[in-house]
Amino acid sequence: QIIGGKVKLGPVKNNSQFEINDGKKNIGSGRIINLQSQKKDILEAKTDSEVGLLIESETSIKAGYSLIFN
To answer: What pTM did the predictor assign?
Structure first.
């Protein structure tokens, strides 16, 4: 799945694992396969960065969900 968003608390690193939160509870987990900023592959994104993520997860990410990185 390809998703986009803003890093609220960084850094976020490529290949990181995360939990998916729907605003009330954790509903799944996943891993970043590729991390991009301004259509370029990056290894790390800092706080307030706009990013695109290619992720691996059994849970479908929807608008409003948060990813919490381990």
So the answer is: 0.89
